[in-house]
Design a protein that fits this description.
The complex is a heterotetramer of chains A (301), B (188), C (143) and D (662). With 301 residues, chain A is α/β, with parallel strands linked by helices. Chain A contains 14 helices and eight strands. Classes of the chains: A alpha/beta (301), B mainly alpha (188), C alpha/beta (143), D alpha/beta (662).
Chain lengths: 301, 188, 143, 662
């Protein structure tokens, strides 16, 4: 078994979520945890494929698991919450419904179910928490945070039925990691409320309203920014903020960051490598917070 | 005035039984109608039937009402209902199962973008093995409601100038074998 | 269509846990295969090696022994004694060329009515797969 | 087997349609008639009924039957009934074997043909077996008249008093420093709203002063030996550092404690108030004797305390800081388990905010708040000092939920209604009850619900999804919002409240498994103690002489608990007054001619019932100590060890019977 983690970017991290990939790779490099991208991976099927064809949806995920197995990875890191859930769900389905398992097995040619289900699909947040831990983060701090307070937003799929990334109700791992990096986090009651996913694209108004609620509550709790673990959450909160601002007449201009950007910066990654310039909302704030100037000890409220 | 009356002849108990036999739909009949699903669902407030009522409809076999509802398409698969359900019913999977059937029988609301997106998404993945946001949204819009594009223009520009809008059409190498696996099949 | 092979199982259930579980299965109207017939003993510890061999010799395709969970034995440790004998029997059966799956020891508490169904149905499945027991001379001698 | 020719009578029962529906009873009866030694085979609607038993009694005489087989239900239900019938009919009750064709055939199989086939097999087995039966005599063991009652809640108190009033000596053992249990924490009781203290405390002091009751609080049972009628129990009494006999209960020592302010969270008030390291759980505690908690007492921690408490006690010298735990060995004939329950830990459902939001309370905490002798002297003031204007009561917290406990806790609906009433009474607040189903199946319960409806309590049907501080509307600022689907109105509602009360369910105590093992009783799936029969023996266990009372058996309210405690006491009394109990004759005995003296049997017996006689070099079984498991019999290499009713040839016959034509 190779020491590296298999890395399954998923489609978003090659598109609107590219900053997530950049910061994640930088962060893991810093921590000496190599992420090796799966050769010729395919789309996980996301939330849509399940609504068309169950068998194929499971099959899409299984093919990726098979790739991972052939490349000799025991762990596959899936940063996109949707990918993370879908891959794990595929394993759960093959486990619980032998019929589906058999079909997939037949379709893929090889790929023994036991082998596919033995692969540990993991979310980078969980990897950082269990394999690295707040302790080591605290020790290896390079930069002193002088930005504002952050609301940790876990979103839905990372903590739901098939997941082990954190507790389904009231997850805390992102909070703990960021606090370890000296970042003050606020108690955010909506941390696991859904951002609407692709609804912003389909039933636009509904999707946007959900994100409005998320932003508003974060602001009310005194957060200056929101940290996310999922490209879709980040995209929704970030890209539609202008529209929300216009509709609600509330002066939102809140940076929507990836937790990996904050941790990467705190651990001394090259600021340019964290995809910070890809922010749409709160660009000024981002520039201030992530400036190179190192500030000596500073106390937080 | 609209007349509200259901005849038992409109119900299809057999169908209810079949649904409850599908993967993920077990335990439909153990539902307490407690409403925890609807209460925790972030979208129930926009639905024509709350998730709880969808389950009631399915259980009693009111197929048409369930399958033609907007509810199943508004489900964003956040699984909140599933982790809250005191009977551990996988409500999200029930929704998926109903979506598949609705698609299969073309029972979804006309020009409703969600099913369109789902179908376009699958076409794309079936053809290229990966999805490419730009092209996906484009096709979805053209086939459902082109005006969305105007709304999206500004966002598109924001993405473009921050280097987050890739026009590249992703494709995996080993496409042949995959597309062969994914050959569309009968739906439930 | 060909007549499906109906295996015959002799089940030794302890009076305090597994027999009660079977009663519970009954009162809860849980349905399971009719292939197992129960001999009630006070404790799984009473199940004599001879009982099992006799059963096989007389035409049983499988034997099931049901006792209380470890630590819950009504007689403190009878079920551990049963476990020991079970291990011995497994070796014995192997030597006689009898498949191990034909003998099964299960801890089923008075509360686990559905467990009775699961175990018996599983066992019937297995025995259908194995087919009728072919009796070796060795078996006929010892029993 | 005895020399007399065997004449067997077989009786197949229809059990109404319970058996007849899936088993062809007539066919079974006809089949039985064809079996060897069977001289008579009948089928009858209800064999257990009087006419049914009469059939047996008469046939024994008129047909000179000397063996009886009844094919009906589980022997656990009616074996005793039929054995008695044989006895009355003038036949030895052990010339009998029972076939279970209900629980093991008609109720668990659908295919009539297969069910009938199985029934026939089982009958054949019984007919073969019973031929080998021998006449047996029941032994008798004397019942020690003393009783152990474990647990000093309302169940234990009532059982103890009932027995003591009947002139029996009772040891009442309680883990806490006082008796009273959960009921002592309550303010009022539903549905009559009479004050809990007023009905409980008199019983508590009655226990204290009763000459027939030995009360040991702050004590635990650590070891149990023996058998029905003759249990040897080891009780460990933890030191409370104040001698119960010397203490006059003046409580001067409390005032004298160097802690001027109470600093330690008070467990009795669920941490809603503070106490000193030397304390008395509550004013009406029984015994009226303080306790010193070594965890927090300075003297115990550092040894550097002025021990002002000792000075305050003065001449009495009741305080002994060097007291040691004491072990007591007692002998009792019967035991009543009344160990009660614990409430569900609300922190296990984070989405209701318990522990995160100060104004989320458990029902038990609110019981203390509304209690006149509680931490707030009956004022419903919240942790933030405010009095709630709006209160939401959430039903089914840790009940009816596959993620926590699947059972209904039975009391939550009613106590929630009670608390709704009391909160309204104390504060005039608007009260919302969020329920899945309102369950009020008790005397006067439904009427109470009606009363609450008329008191304008809001009843919202829906399982609360979350309690949150998330604000969507200005009116929700600074309050807790309850999000729920109003399943009757048909929309999702957000209801801002000041105070949330979680109606937590009842669950087995954490230490229930240990108790279970000590007294060697079974437990139901959920971890509550298992009764011998849900209907016919609801307070008995499968261990003779051990009875159940109260919530250790299943969640119940006070009326049911008291009724059950009375029943348990009556069962114990019945045994004691009989003076003896007949033991089952299925004990082991040694065929000395065959015994080779290998002593294998001795290592098998956990009860040391087998002794070895060196002079004749043979084993011998003490039939009083033998509990009849038969483990030694199975182990005996020479076949010398035998067990009544489970003789080898009896069981072989049964096996062959099952397998004939297999």
């Amino acid at each position: 078994m190779s020491g590296a983690y298999g890395y399954f970017p998923g489609c978003s991290l090659k598109g609107a979520g590219v900053a997530y990939e950049e910061s994640l790779l930088a962060l893991f490099r810093l921590l000496g945890l190599p992420l090796a991208e799966l050769e010729d991976w395919n789309c996980c099927g996301a939330t849509s494929y399940m609504s068309i064809d169950e068998r194929s949806a499971i099959l899409l995920s299984s093919r990726n698991l098979l790739l991972a197995h052939k490349a000799g990875y025991r762990d596959v890191v899936a940063p996109c919450s949707a990918c993370y859930l879908v891959l794990r769900k595929a394993q759960d389905y093959m486990e619980r419904y032998p019929r589906i398992g058999k079909e997939v097995h037949a379709a893929l040619g090889d790929g023994d179910l036991k082998v596919l289900n033995a692969i540990r699909v993991r979310h980078p947040l969980e990897v950082l928490y269990t394999d690295v831990g707040p302790g080591r983060i605290r020790q290896s701090l390079v930069r002193q945070w002088h930005g504002g307070r952050v609301a940790c937003y876990y979103g839905c799929q990372m903590v739901r039925p098939y997941a082990e990334a954190d507790r389904a109700h009231d997850p805390m791992r992102m909070d703990e990691l960021l606090r370890a990096a000296g970042v003050p986090t606020v108690d955010y009651s909506l941390k696991t409320k859904c951002c609407g996913g692709s609804l912003t694209g389909t039933t636009h108004e509904v999707g946007v309203r959900l994100n409005y609620a998320l932003l508003r509550e974060a602001a009310r709790k005194g957060a200056d920014a929101i940290a996310t673990v999922c490209p879709l959450c980040q995209y929704n909160l970030d890209a539609y903020q202008r529209e929300i601002r216009r509709a609600s007449h509330e002066p939102f201009d809140m940076p929507i960051l990836y937790f990996s950007q904050i941790l990467g910066w705190a651990l001394g990654a090259d600021t340019g490598a964290l995809g910070l310039r890809r922010a749409i909302s709160g660009r000024k704030t981002v520039q201030q917070w992530f400036s190179e100037r190192r500030v000596e000890k500073e106390a937080y409220a | 005035m609209q007349r509200k009356l259901k005849f038992q002849s409109e119900a299809d108990p057999e169908w209810a039984r079949r649904v409850s036999d599908r993967p993920g739909c077990e335990g439909l009949f153990s539902c307490l109608q407690c409403g925890a699903c609807s209460g925790t669902c972030p979208l129930s407030i926009y639905m024509d039937f709350s998730p709880r009522r969808i389950i009631a409809l399915v259980r009693e076999g009111f197929r048409a009402d369930a399958l033609s509802s907007k509810t199943i398409w508004l489900c964003a698969s956040c699984y909140s209902c599933t982790v809250h359900c005191p009977r551990q019913i996988h409500i999200t999977d029930v929704m998926y199962s109903l979506k598949r059937e609705a698609i299969g029988y073309r029972l979804y609301p006309a020009r409703f973008p969600v099913p369109v997106l789902a179908q376009e998404f699958c076409k794309l993945v079936r053809r290229r093995g990966r999805s490419s946001e730009f092209w996906l949204v484009l096709r979805m819009a053209l086939r459902s409601n082109p005006f969305i594009l105007f709304k999206m223009a500004r966002t598109g520009w924001d993405l473009a100038r921050t280097g987050r809008l890739s026009l590249r059409r992703e494709r995996i190498k080993d496409m042949d074998s995959l597309s062969h696996h994914l050959a569309p099949r009968e739906v439930a | 269509m060909p007549e499906e092979f109906e295996p015959k199982i002799v089940a030794f259930f302890c009076n305090w846990c597994t027999y009660l579980a079977a009663d519970l299965a009954g009162t809860s109207r849980i349905k399971y295969a009719p292939n197992a017939e129960v001999v009630r003993v006070m404790c799984s510890g009473r199940v004599d090696v001879q009982f099992v061999l006799k059963a096989f010799a007389k035409g049983a395709d499988g034997v099931l022994i049901g006792g209380c969970h470890p630590g819950d034995c009504h007689y403190q440790e009878g079920n551990y004694k049963a476990l020991r004998r079970y291990r011995l029997l497994q070796r014995l059966l192997r030597q006689m060329g009898i498949e191990e799956e034909r003998l099964r020891l299960e801890w089923i508490s008075a509360a686990e009515g559905d467990r009775v169904r699961v175990v018996i149905d599983e066992m019937v499945e297995t025995l259908r797969r194995l087919g009728p027991l072919h009796k070796s001379e060795a078996l006929m001698e010892v029993a | 087997m005895p020399e007399r020719i065997v004449r067997i009578g077989v009786y197949t029962c229809h059990c109404g349609s319970n058996i007849a529906a899936t088993v062809d009873v007539k066919a079974v009866a006809e089949f039985a008639a064809t079996l060897p030694n069977v001289v008579l085979s009948r089928d009858y609607k209800y064999m257990c009924s009087d006419p049914g038993q009469d059939l047996i009694r008469q046939d024994i005489r008129s047909h000179a039957l000397n063996r009886i087989v009844v094919a009906s239900c589980s022997p656990h239900l009616h074996e005793h009934t039929f054995r008695t019938a044989l006895k009355v009919g003038g036949l030895n009750p052990f010339y009998f074997h029972m076939v279970n064709i209900r629980e093991q055939a008609s109720w668990v199989h659908e295919n009539r043909v297969q069910a009938t086939r199985k029934a026939k097999d089982l009958v054949r087995a019984a007919v073969r077996r019973v031929a080998f039966h021998e006449p047996l005599k029941r032994g008798r063991v004397a019942i020690h008249p003393d009783v152990l009652v474990l647990g000093g809640g309302i169940a234990g108190i009532h059982a103890a008093l009932t027995l003591a009033n009947a002139g029996k000596h009772v040891y009442l053992v309680e883990k806490e420093p006082t008796i009273g249990g959960h009921m002592a924490k309550f303010d009022k009781t539903f549905p009559t709203l009479d004050c809990a203290a007023c009905i409980l405390t008199p019983k508590m002091s009655a226990v204290r002063s009763h000459p027939n009751i030995t009360l040991w609080t702050y004590s635990e049972v650590v070891k149990v030996d023996g058998y029905v009628g003759n249990y040897k129990v080891k009780v460990l009494r933890h030191p409370r550092y104040i001698d119960e006999d010397l203490c006059a209960g003046c409580l001067d020592c409390l005032e004298a404690c160097v802690y001027k302010q109470a600093k330690v969270p008070d467990a009795f008030n669920l941490g809603l108030s503070k106490r000193r390291p030397i304390y008395i759980p509550f004013p009406q505690a029984v015994p009226q004797v303080p306790v010193i908690d070594p965890e927090t007492c300075i003297q115990f921690k550092s040894g550097k305390c002025k021990t002002t408490c000792v000075d305050a006690c003065g001449e009495r010298h009741a305080i002994n800081l060097h007291a040691e735990p004491q072990a007591h060995e007692i002998e009792v004939g019967t035991v009543i388990l009344a160990t009660g329950f614990q409430t569900f830990d609300a922190a296990r459902v984070p989405y209701y905010g318990y522990g995160r939001y100060g104004n989320v309370y458990t029902a038990l905490e609110v019981e203390r708040l509304v209690n006149a002798s509680g931490p707030t002297a009956g004022q419903v003031v919240m942790r933030d000092g405010r009095t709630p204007q709006t209160v939401g009561i959430v039903h089914c917290v840790g009940s009816r939920d596959e993620n926590t406990h699947r059972w209904c806790s039975r009391v939550c609906c009613m106590y929630s209604l009670k608390l709704a009433h009391l909160i309204k009474e104390h504060t005039g607040a608007e009260v919302f009850d969020f329920y899945i189903d309102i369950r009020t199946p008790g005397k006067g319960f439904e009427e109470f619900y009606q009363k609450l409806l008329n008191e304008r309590v809001h009843f919202v049907r829906g399982r609360v999804a979350e309690v949150t501080d998330w604000v969507l509307d200005p009116s929700e600022e600074g309050r807790l919002v309850i999000r729920v689907e109003d399943t009757l109105a048909g929309f999702v509602r957000r209801i801002p409240v000041d105070m949330v009360v979680l109606a937590t369910g009842l669950e087995p105590r954490a230490d229930a498994p240990e108790i279970r093992r000590l007294f060697n009783i079974s437990c139901a799936g959920e971890g509550f103690f298992l009764e011998r029969h849900p209907k016919l023996a609801p307070v008995n266990t499968f261990t003779d002489g051990v009875f159940l009372a109260g919530c250790c058996q299943s969640p119940k309210d006070i009326p049911d608990t008291v009724a059950q405690a009375g029943a348990a006491a009556a069962e114990a009394l019945a045994l004691i007054d009989a003076g003896y109990i007949e033991t089952e004759p299925n004990t082991a005995h040694v065929e000395e001619s065959l015994c080779c003296g290998c002593k294998t049997c001795m290592s098998m017996c956990p009860y040391h019932a087998v002794s070895f006689l060196p002079e004749i070099y043979k084993s011998r079984v003490n039939e009083v100590l033998c509990k009849g498991c038969g483990t030694c019999v199975a182990a005996c290499p020479s076949g010398a060890m035998r067990q009544n009713l489970f003789e080898d040839d009896e069981i072989f016959a049964e096996i062959e019977g099952i397998l004939t034509n297999a």
